[in-house]
Amino acid sequence: MPVTDFLIRNAKLYGNEVALIELNPEEKDTRRTTWKESELIEPTRSEVYRREITWEVFNEKANRFANMLMSRGIKKGDKVAIIMYNCLEWLPIYFGILKTGAIAVPFNFRYDADEILYCVELAEVDVILFGPEFIGRIETHAEKLMNGRLLIYVGDNCPNFAESYRELVADCSSKEPDVKITEEDFGAIYFSSGTTGFPKAILHKHQSLTQAAEMEQKHHGQGRDDIFLCIPPLYHTGAKFHWMGSLVAGSKAVLLKGAKPATILSAVSDERCTIVWLLVPWAQDILDAFDRGDLNPADYHLSQWRLMHIGAQPVPPSLIKRWKEYFPDHQYDTNYGLSESTGPGCVHLGVENIHKVGAIGIPGYRWQCKIVDENGVEVKKGDVGELIVKGPGVMTCYYNNEEATRECLKDGWLYTGDMAMLDEDDFIFLVDRKKDVIVSGGENIYPVQIEDFLRKNDKIKDVAVIGLPDRRLGEITAAIIEVKEGMSLTKEEVETFSLDLPRYKRPKEIIFDEIPRNATGKIEKPVLRKRYGADNLVAKENQA
User: Fold this and answer.
1) Does the first or last residue of the chain, that is N or C, have fewer Cβ atoms within 10 Å of its Cβ?
2) CATH architecture for residues 437-543
3) What is the torsion angle, in degrees rounded to the nearest 10, for the CA atoms of residue 179, residue 184, residue 188 and residue 194?
4) pTM score of the predicted model
5) 3-state DSSP helix/strand/coil percent for the chain, to nearest 5?
6) Over the stretch 278-302, which tens digit does the pLDDT of each residue have?
7) DSSP assigned state of 331
8) Which CATH number does 4-220 carry?
9) Is 468 helix (H, G, I), strand (E, B) or coil?
């Protein structure tokens, strides 16, 4: 069944129960805290910005938006883009798009004006919804974006080149749209992270969305009493599809703005959250704050918190060991996935397998996995190859890019570009991105292995290993290290610490700097390569 059926069911069964809470502890506000149809309720507290909607209102708002779109000629197969920060309107808009049979196209809110125009044209978008933070970027190419498209503004003080979302939906029917949707219909386009250039458009059927939702609930056992804390941006498959476990369960979720340790812990405490998905930097920041004595777990109501899970990047085992020292009763899971596989979960550790921390895990619910060589032949256990996956969440194609689709999809298998190995217990260990492998003197070096080792140093907050050009060896390893706040670390100390590594894996260059990460927590290695790589070295030689 299409994922929209879960929302319809929840509205019928749990209509008066809270579905979503928007929480921004960093912004004081005296407006409404509860949002009901045609009614604003005065806040009971004014210290934070907080709104909530019930399942019934969630569904009604989705229906109003769907019926508005249909009144403007939007039909099955059309594309509707969303360029907004997390807010209470985001998910009702997303589901409203799905209910028309149109294709939802979430945009990364970090896109600049040129990237927005590029993605709009690549995905052949018909409608663009945008929030107040994006007025300038939309206005830059407003004339081109308005060409045959409807621009809808979600917020106060609508610019003159767009139409107001509030005014458009105000008088629209809240009845279910008369549109038949099947799992074979196209449902969404997501974009690749674009770390090697402009993003690719990833087309998914409704089957992928339903698979992701049901898989999330299967993996983490969301029940009616669970409360999920959602911090990452909803445009990303990770945040949205982890939330969809709550959709399947009919349980509450909190959309939190802000990722500071105190902000996260206060939200868990005040809203009695039971499940939290964190990115590695956020988990590290929480632990560092505990270690420094800046925060004390005893000052918060955390006993109901049962599960912490992490995805979007390899997780250092040392991080989870530290986490369990503070939270010994927590369940833990690692989730691996790609936007091409509808986000996280095609491989996951499993809460019962915490003894295997360091692995990304085993095939997820309804997924198959293999590790193959360059000819597509399965390698033996212990050997490194490319991870490929197959299941009901695999993308249909890269939209308008047949060549890239052929390279990535072969006989129903999705080639992930990630290098991995299988251990004796059939657990998958991620070694590195195929394109990130460093070849030094003919030897393959996998940066993740070095990064995991260096993170064991108590003074290191974050680290990224990249290859730098070398005339003799082709490439040498460089470790960019971010030191923990209030601590000092020298190159000599890092070199001494690295003596436990095989000689060929020891970093040849050590650079102290901040580690850039994107909105989903992935290290932006292209940024570091540009900063310290070939172009940088050539410039230095020219100056000399």
Assistant:
1) C
2) 2-Layer Sandwich (3.30)
3) -170
4) 0.82
5) 35, 30, 40
6) 988 789 889 999 999 999 999 999 9
7) E
8) 3.40.50.12780
9) strand
